[in-house]
């Protein structure tokens, strides 16, 4: 029975994403933090982990970015995108709200709402939106900014619902496991890699040119410090296509040539299922022609 560790506890957005990934017999295992979700897979305690990776309002989730490059590699095999708006939960009968707790990514997405509706409440960071709900239940804080589903797990009341500074906000989640057979290409895939480049003029432009030359669409570019020297960065690159496709494989080989370090983070079907705008046919015809020339079969 496959086990999926997810960034919990029960009632997080990540639990909803994990349920969307899960098949009938899969067991969902809540853990307290993103690094613990990765550790569960690396230790063999679970087969997969489900973590948030990026939000359309607040951007990349730093804990996930860091866990992706640390220790033994894990690769993404699927992604899921959820609409994100929040419920503000309180203990039944709460008269005054002086503290409001949540995950920092969630607090950042309701900053304006809090300023307008709870200007005197102090925002407090918790490990997750559901951990905030648990803390409110325990009497530690007055209100939690939580996933709407949290109210089905914890006996709290809804002080407000549909809370969000930006309508139609979305968060993307990944399902990761230890490297193994890759998901089959579907024609609508995403490939993720992280590269560390030598510190020289134009190196990032060279990386991006390798993609552009092959007609590969970039869907994400994020930089994070290497945590070594000041000014040294890693680049997280998301692109459309699957490593099994000739031009994507060729582009990754080119990125490898330009990089000091490169880590493959997976090729997996895109949640929107929109076909990647590139032509494998032209690329395959070109490599076939070179093969023919090498074999002395073509002029
Ligand atoms: O705490 C949760 O409920 C999460 O799943 C984490 C998380 C995040 O890290 O971005 C997920 C989606 C929302 O954007 C807010 C918080």
From TrEMBL:
Q: Which PROSITE patterns match?
A: ACT, PREPHENATE_DEHYDR_3
Q: Does the keyword Amino-acid biosynthesis apply?
A: yes
Signal peptide residue numbers? none
GO annotation (BP), single: L-phenylalanine biosynthetic process
Q: What is its EC number?
A: 4.2.1.51
Which reactions are catalysed by this chain?
Answer: prephenate + H(+) = 3-phenylpyruvate + CO2 + H2O
Q: What pathway, per the record?
A: Amino-acid biosynthesis; L-phenylalanine biosynthesis; phenylpyruvate from prephenate: step 1/1
**Pfam families, sorted:** ACT, PDT
Report keywords, A-Z. Amino-acid biosynthesis, Aromatic amino acid biosynthesis, Lyase, Phenylalanine biosynthesis
Residues forming the ACT domain are 192-269
- EC main class here is lyase
Q: Name one GO cellular component term.
A: cytoplasm
What residues does the record give for site: Essential for prephenate dehydratase activity?
171
Q: Name one GO molecular function term.
A: prephenate dehydratase activity
Give all residue intervals belonging to the Prephenate dehydratase domain. 3-178
- PANTHER family, per the entry: PREPHENATE DEHYDRATASE P PROTEIN (PTHR21022), PREPHENATE DEHYDRATASE-RELATED (PTHR21022:SF19)
**Official protein name in the record:** Prephenate dehydratase
Q: Which gene encodes it?
A: pheA
